[in-house]
Amino acid sequence: MILNHIAMSIDRKLKAPIGKKIKLSEYKTNYTGQFKDKQDATDLLQNSIMEMRELQEKLYADGRYSLLIIFQAMDAAGKDGTIKHVMSGINPQGCDVVSFKQPSAQELKHDYLWRNWCQMPERGRIGIFNRSYYEEVLVTKVHPEIILTQNLPHVHTLKEVNEAFFTERYRQINNMEKHWTDNGKVIIKFFLHLSKDEQKKRFLDRIDNPSKNWKFSASDLKERQHWDAYQEAFEKAISATSTTEAPWYIIPADKKWFMRASVSQIIVETLKTLNLQYPKISKEGKAQLLLAKAQLENESEK
Fold this sequence. Notes:
5-stranded parallel sheet; globular
């Protein structure tokens, strides 16, 4: 009961407001809520993992919904680690993780949302997007020249990649998510909110630790130079697309243990709201079960 009380308070604190502009500077990246220490959060995480295992089975058996979990963040915020730890207890046969990289030549021949439609989880399954279509209002906002490579019929110069352009993209994303949720898709969006100082520490760790060298890329350092521009892009995207149907959660990411515990419990609490049920068997079905049981028992006696 104590763990559930803590979890519910975290949910209310971290959920982005709907219809309001946010300032990320007002959200502490080292916030740890009501957790007394790391062990307290670890206990909640393990509790959530066990609950998630049962809820995933019910999600599949119920067959009415699918769950899409989106992770967005600055480099080194801990997306991969959070996915690994939080989803460690679920059945991999019912979960798909998609990491969206730079669009392929084929993908560029379609609209910017096409490749995401193709990866949406079917009913009964959990889908995880490690980065997503939101890159199209984040990276492209910081580097608008990318838009020119998409061969859009109404965009010919950088001047046309303006605020009105991105406002229209926010509208398109909201409409798409509304369509998905109207048809049984449940969407949770997490922004892992990392401080610039903590990113620096993690980059240095990747450089100094030979086993983590592979995680560091010179492009990460290059993108760090656009830190303020990315923060503004995230603020505008979250403000414009946090809706009742597809809410954003701003998760403090400086303390990995807090981040993982918070994400896990938000997922659990979201699944609980669906009132998932195992299918009820009809009288005819129960009669068939009894006949099958009798047949099997008689078989064992021979």
